[in-house]
Write a structure and sequence with these properties.
Helix content is about 80%, strand content about 0%. The protein has one domain: ABC transporter involved in vitamin B12 uptake, BtuC, CATH 1.10.3470. With about 350 residues, it is mostly helical. The longest helix is centred in the first third of the chain and has 36 residues.
Length: about 350
């Protein structure tokens, strides 16, 4: 009876998160510098609207809100994976240096002036930087004992992140004002360059990653009990760790390439889901994806509206929202209220 009740409760949770995602996407299409009612949105999607409305909805807002949902869901999914991998609820997607590596590549492209010659050079450089960080941390993490030691992996990520941050500061120290501002704005996150090509790439990465990580959900549950117990119950710990690290890191790299450095989504969202519905990863992983996918379009909407017609860096908004929300969650748990 209890298992049936838990399944019903979690099914309702997934339905509620899916509904929240639908509302977030609708709000992202509805509001902006030019308000468009629901009838106008439907007409634009059907191709029956005025040209100006159709352009705003289909060419500007729709790819942006869809990309926001994919990036938010991917960061939350990667965060839940890293928390399982490192057995630490405070882990997040950038803890192993992926974001810093991507930022080195992006800042180097801006500093070299490549972005003026070819728009694709910045995401390409950011991805190469992220890939270099992933391989570096993985190599360091597997040097001790021949397996993937999570303690060494975490230390390697911190050291690599510190080194990459120093490289970023060194590059920025020699930049003119315009290049400096462009680099800083990219590192703080933005969806202003959203397009259907980035949506397609992000959707492919998210779909493949979700399928692979859901296949590891039982192993994540076993690792939460203890490594020795997981081994005795049939989990291939080293393979699980390596696969989870590579998939979550590549997913994080894709999100950073698409939208820059957006913090706190991968920390706050899976933690909130875990405190609300428990730590069963068969539920936690898809629920974290849906919650992150609902959260980021709303944060992006706020970033667009608060200083319209300009916009705030998205990472600033997620930090301002994420920090007090996270403190509130911890306070609720400390005083013993139901999460």
């Amino acid at each position: 009876m209890k298992a049936s009740g838990d399944s019903r409760w979690r099914g309702m949770g997934l339905a509620a998160l899916a509904f929240a995602l639908a509302l977030a996407l609708t709000a992202g299409l509805r509001f902006g510098a030019v308000g468009i009612d629901l009838a106008g949105i439907v007409a634009a999607l059907r191709g029956d609207a005025e040209p100006a409305v159709a352009t705003i909805v289909r060419d500007l807002r729709l790819p942006r809100v869809v990309l926001a949902a994919l990036v938010g869901g991917s960061l939350a999914l990667a965060g839940a994976t890293f928390q399982a991998l490192l057995r630490n609820p405070l882990a997040e997607p950038y803890v192993l240096g992926v974001s810093s590596g991507a930022a080195v590549g992006a800042v180097a492209a801006i500093a070299a002036g490549w972005t003026a010659a070819a728009a694709w050079s910045l995401p390409a450089a950011a991805f190469l930087g992220a890939l270099g960080a992933i391989l570096l941390v993985l190599r360091i993490g597997t040097r001790v004992g021949g397996g993937l030691d999570v303690r060494v992996l975490l230390l390697a990520g911190v050291v690599a992140g510190t080194f990459f941050n120093a490289c970023i500061l060194l590059l920025l120290a020699f930049q003119e004002t315009d290049a400096f501002r462009a680099a800083m704005f990219w590192m703080m996150g933005s969806l202003s360059g959203a397009g259907w090509a980035s949506v397609a790439l992000m959707a492919s990465a998210a779909a493949v990653s979700l399928v692979v990580l859901l296949g590891l959900a039982r192993s994540f549950d076993l690792l939460a009990v203890g490594e020795e117990t997981a081994v005795h119950l049939g989990a291939r710990v080293d393979r699980v760790r390596t696969t989870a690290y590579l998939v979550a890191s590549l997913l994080t790299a894709a999100a950073v390439v698409a939208a820059g450095g957006i913090g706190f989504v991968g920390l706050v969202v899976p933690h909130a889901v875990r405190m609300t519905w428990g730590g069963d990863h068969r539920f936690l992983l898809p629920a974290s994806f849906l919650a992150g996918a609902a959260f980021l379009p709303l944060a992006d909407l706020f970033a667009r509206l608060v200083v319209a017609p300009g916009e705030l860096p998205l990472g600033v908004v997620t930090a301002f929202v994420g920090v007090p929300f996270f403190v509130w969650l911890l306070r609720r748990r400390t005083v013993g209220e139901p999460a």
